[in-house]
Structure formats: C-alpha cells, structure tokens
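We modelled the chain as a single entity of 74 amino acids. Its sequence is:
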Amino acid sequence: MNAYVIVKDGCPLALSVLNPDQVEIVCGWPPNRSFDFVMHREALRAFVQLGTEALERMDAALAADDPAPSVPAC
C-alpha cells in the first residue's frame, strides 16, 4: 500500500490509545477530511526517533540557511 499525505502547521492532530500495544493517530478533521493510522508500540518509538532526527536536520539546515539534505528512500 502506498499513501501520501501532507500535514501542515495548524492541522489538528489527535490520538487514541487502543490498547497497551497500539495507538491510533488522526490528522485533520474527522470524519471526512482526516488521515488515520495505527502504530504498534515499538513502531511508534522508531517513528518518534526518526522524527527527532528529522527535526535536528531541519533545524540545522535552517540555521545554515541551506536546503535540507535528501534522505534516501527505503
């Protein structure tokens, strides 16, 4: 499956813990204008680590006034 979504500043984000091992994250305005996904605990942990790295790179690029370096695709 392939999905593509852009989450802009100001887009509502919400979560629901479904059980001790899964969380549902909702981006946008339910029920018709939202993107929902479910992540398992360790996948969420890896996503947060990746997001932290992305923010560090984005902040460094902003500070250097350079475009962000590309990240290789999977």
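As a brief sanity check on the tokenised model: The mean pLDDT is 89. The two ends are 14 Å apart (CA to CA).
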